Every structure is written in C-alpha cells, then in structure tokens.
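Quarterly update from the structural biology core.
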Amino acid sequence: MNKQHLYTTLFLALSSAYLSACSSVAAEKTALSTEQQQQLAAERAGHLRQTHVRFNALDKDENGYISRDEFNRSGDSAFSRMDTNQDGVISKADPKPAPRGEDTRSEQTRLQQQQARQQQPRAERLLKMPTTHSADGMLAMYDSNNDGVVSRDEYQQGRDAQFAAVDSNSDGLLSYDEYISEFAGRLDSQIARTLRQD
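Predicted structure, tokenized:
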C-alpha cells in the first residue's frame, strides 16, 4: 500500500468516526429544548471568556505564556485562600473565605440588585464545572484518595498533572492556545455528561 493510499484511507476512517460522533451528539442534543440548548451554548461561551481572563491574569510578565513559576504562584495563592483555618488541608471544615475586593456598590444599588434576583431568579446552570473558589470544587478536583480533605502534597500532584495535561508540546510553558484548548476539551466532556444525564 503506497503512502497516498494509506493517508486517504486514514482520512476517510477519521472523517467517518468524526461524522458518527457528531450525529450521535446531535441526536443527544434533541433531548434538550431549544431554550436549554441556547443556555448551554451561552454558558460554554461564558466559561471560555473566563478562561481568557484567567490566562491573562496568570501571565504576569505578559509574554504570552504561563510559566511553571506563574502557574505555581497562582496555585499556592488558591490553596492558601481556601485553607482558611490554616491547618494545612482543604476540607468542608474550612470556613468560607472572605469575598475578594471591596464591594463598592451603593446601598441603593445593592438593594435593587437583591430585589431583581428575588423577582427573577437566575436559571439553574446546565454546565457545572468544579472551581477552586469553593471547598466542594477543590475536593472534586484534587481529593484523589477521596478522604474528604485535600492535603498540600495531593494538591501539588494534581496541579503538576494539570500543567502536564495542558502543556501539549512539553516545552514547560503554557501557550494561550494550549490553555484554551485544554479547557474547551474539558467543557465539551462535561457537556457530553450533561446531555447523557438528561
């Protein structure tokens, strides 16, 4: 078999697999209403916008890459912030951390926003991703032995695995494309799980 024939066969096989996957996803999506599909798409887009913001926040030297040091500094800060009782582990026993930044809204604005939320409660999110901003999220992401706590070593092992997963070319730097692509893949996996549950 010559190379051209091999490449053509491989291309056709991959195309067939891709189209098959697309049609099964499309069939699954029909289980959701049009409104839910739009909500899911909007939530995915929102997560990607936040990922863009996160990348820029981590790239402290603004060189277009997240270095290992920048990645680790961010991780250390997140662990310290969530370990509010300073016992060296993150668990549900940790009191909720104080909100970041000062609330600069006027009392009138605060009341108006509170009333608006009561009158029109936000639709329940369809796309739920674990976050490092809560003990539950930290446990979901880093409690590898399922003992209800995240130790410093366990957390660092999880962070090391994350860095390696994102650093697809293994150059020790996370490019914007690597960072966004890896998170988009996780989003799409979560969307597939969400669709299967409905």
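Helices lie at 3-29, 34-58, 68-82, 107-119, 135-142, 152-166, 176-197.
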